[in-house]
Every structure is written in structure tokens, then in C-alpha cells.
């Protein structure tokens, strides 16, 4: 359970601190945005930390259902 709480805290912190970069990163890695150099500047690869479980879950969920 502590891993999920830490992951939730990281997700909320990322969305509150950098909303445009967080949403762009989610959409980019779920293949809902085109591979564009202009958009790649907004993508934050540090959000893809292996312990950020909820962020990876959202990427996979968006990739499956969209």
C-alpha cells in the first residue's frame, strides 16, 4: 500500500506542478499524440520513473481504450 500512496502523491504533484507537461507526456506515451519535435519539448521523461505506477497505469489505460 505505501507504494501506491507514494505513486499517487507523485502523480498529483506532477499534475499540479506541471499540468501541460503531465498531460502531454500521458498522451504522447499512450500514442495519442503525433511524434512531433515541437510536442517532444513538452514531454517530461522524468515522469516515467519505474516506481510511478499510476502514471504507467494511466498511459496503458489510455493506450488501450482510445
Question: How would you characterize this protein structure?
Answer:
This protein has four helices and no strands. It is an all-alpha fold and 66 residues long. The mean pLDDT is 89.
Defining key terms:
66 residues, globular
- SSE pattern, N- to C-terminal: HHHH
Q: State the secondary-structure class.
A: mainly alpha
Give the total of beta strands: 0
**Overall geometry:** globular
| Sequence stretches where pLDDT stays below 50 over 5 or more residues | none
Oligomer: single chain
Largest sheet: none
The overall pLDDT, averaged over residues, is: 89
Radius of gyration: 12 Å
Present the secondary structure layout:
Layout: H1 2-17, H2 19-29, H3 37-40, H4 53-65
Helix pairs in contact: 1-2
Brief summary:
The chain has 66 residues and is an all-alpha fold.
Amino acid at each position: 500500500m505505501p507504494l501506491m500512496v507514494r505513486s499517487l502523491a507523485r502523480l498529483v504533484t506532477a499534475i499540479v506542478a506541471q499540468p501541460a507537461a503531465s498531460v502531454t507526456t500521458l498522451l504522447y506515451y499512450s500514442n495519442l499524440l503525433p511524434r512531433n519535435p515541437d510536442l517532444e519539448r513538452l514531454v517530461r521523461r522524468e515522469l516515467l520513473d519505474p516506481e510511478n505506477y499510476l502514471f504507467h497505469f494511466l498511459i496503458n489505460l489510455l493506450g488501450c481504450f482510445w
